Amino acid sequence: MGELARERYPGGVLVDVEYFKVEEGIAQTAMLVNDPDVAVIYEGFIAFDDVVVRPDILIRTRRNHWRLSEVKSTAQAKPEHRDDLAIQAYVLTGAGLALDATYLMHVNTGYLYPGGAYDLQQLFHEEDLTREVQERQPDIPARMAAMRRTLTDEKPPVIEPDDHCFAPYECPFWEHCTQDKPARWVFHLPGSRRAYNDLVALGVQTIDEIPAGFPLQLIQQRVKNNVEWIGPGLQTALETVVYPVHHLDFETLGSAIPLYPNTHPYQAIPFQWSNHIEHEDGSLGYEEYLCGGPHDPREELAVALLKSLGQQGGVCTYTGYEQGVLTGLADALPHLRDDLLGICTRLWDLHRIIRGHYYHPAFNGSYSIKVVLPAVVPHLAYDDLEIQEGIMASLQFSRMVFGNRDPAEKARLRTALLKYCERDTLAMVEVRKALRGKGPTRKTRGRSASRQPHRCGWT
User: Fold this and answer.
1) In the chain, what are the domains?
2) Is-contact 453 375, C-beta < 8 A?
3) Do residues 45 and 28 make contact, with C-beta atoms less than 8 angstroms apart?
4) Is the bond into 168 cis (omega within 30 degrees of 0)?
5) Closest listed residue to residue 124, CA positions, set 95, 142, 140, 103
6) d(CA 195, CA 214)
7) Residue 69's closest CA among 94, 89, 48?
8) How far apart are CA 456 and CA 71, in angstroms?
9) Is-contact 98 65, C-beta < 8 A?
10) Which residue, among 387, 351, 349, 350, has the nearest Cα to 366 in the 3D structure?
11) 337 Cβ partners below 8 Å, 6+ apart?
12) pLDDT in tens, the chain (459 residues)
């Protein structure tokens, strides 16, 4: 993305120096700054007050006057980006560069890529933060001094670990700072952080110490009880699905730079699906699709999916994500719209069933399928897979079709992707099976194909 952003200000010089070769980078950048024929500098090294910054794009406006444009892959400016720009401006001006303006360049999610060359004026949006950055400058020296004191102190700061350890990024010392915390530390209580803050104020350290009568949300109360809970309506809810039961999972790619014509930045493009099919007699079938090349996979994927799902049976998913993918496909493929939206009328959300009717202490407040599966089906999990979560699947798919030319490596990545998506739908099959063995059951399971499927949004 950085390379593409530079093309908005072409003709510049890249300071192509490894990040740890600071002195070399500073020397090269100084030469470029002092050369009036250099109009734009990419990723230079600027130092002041023992701080080194690497501004993405510096545009010369006059002899020693510059405009800073910092590139971020997000759709809007975030608080940490504003801090970043303020510190960069502090260093640049301290090093003797006259800074006329400070901009943040980020992705315009409203841009529809028509194919061919990117319209960089539309793809990237520049936000003028000059005034805000200037207003922050008086506070920078004190903040820098406080950082230095922390870095030079022999002992770590006495700060209770909390949500701030993950914002805006996860602190690498989290494991160190929490190594002595009890297993059922109140920080792990799900839901509103207000309850956590109130408990800390009361001196409560563990979930088991929460006093009787303390107001808790339903899920928090189940975590506190630390026992398996089986709702009286579990079996009735499980029996509402229609056979044959298709278990559907998509994997999607959401790139900051749109890869296919008629797509937006960060639009979720499905490239893979898995479908385990459970028949009324208990037999299990399996079908799958994975795009094998750099072409737009949507129509090919959708046609194969419609054939796999057919016209009969419920479509079991986990959360409403698949519904969003289906409606996105319907919008992109108007000639398949009715058929794709027809699948939505068959969706049956296992996630909602579990949240409403079942809890296991090993959930620890989470209803993620990655947590639910090993708790309910102990012999099955994700830790034996090379790919264990959706973001990694997206990255590996991108490597497979856009970045890697080694046939053996492509084949390895393909196998890993297929195994991961297959596990997601097998997880739903096995969780449903395990839950059907819990609590009272009705003599008649209501598996008749004449049962009407529930529409999207069933609760």
Assistant:
1) 2-142 (3.40.1350), 181-226 (no CATH), 229-459 (3.30.420)
2) no
3) yes
4) yes
5) 103
6) 9
7) 89
8) 40
9) yes
10) 351
11) 330, 331
12) 889 999 999 999 999 999 999 999 999 999 999 999 999 999 999 999 999 999 999 999 998 899 999 999 999 999 999 999 999 999 999 999 999 999 999 999 999 999 999 999 999 999 999 999 999 999 999 999 999 999 899 988 888 888 899 989 999 999 999 999 998 999 989 888 888 889 989 999 999 999 999 999 999 999 999 999 999 999 999 999 999 999 999 999 999 999 999 999 999 999 999 999 999 999 999 999 999 999 999 999 999 999 999 999 999 999 999 999 999 999 999 999 999 999 999 999 999 999 999 999 999 999 999 999 999 999 999 999 999 999 999 999 999 999 877 899 999 999 999 999 999 999 999 999 999 999 765 543 444 333 333 333 332
- Provide the angle, in degrees to the nearest 10, between the axes of the packed helices 350-357 and 407-436: 40
The 3-class SS string of the chain reads: CHHHHHCCCCCCEECCCCCCCHHHHHHHHHHHHCCCCCCEEECCCEEECCEEECCCEEEEEECCEEEEEEECCCCCCCHHHHHHHHHHHHHHHHCCCEEEEEEEEEECCCCCECCCCCCHHHHEEEEECHHHHHHHHHHHHHHHHHHHHHHHCCCCCCCCCCHHHHCCCCCCCHHHHCCCCCCCEHHHCCCCHHHHHHHHHCCCCEHHHCCCCCCCCHHHHHHHHCCCEECCCHHHHHCCCCCCEEEEEEEEECCCCCCCCCECCCCCEEEEEEEEEECCCCCEEEEEEECCCCCCCHHHHHHHHHHHHCCCCCEEECCCHHHHHHHHHHHHCHHHHHHHHHHHCCEEEHHHHHHHHEECHHHCCCCCHHHHHHHHCCCCCCCCCCCCCHHHHHHHHHHHHHHCCCHHHHHHHHHHHHHHHHHHHHHHHHHHHHHHCCCCCCCCCCCCCCCCCCCCCCC
User: What's the whole-model pTM score?
Assistant: 0.88
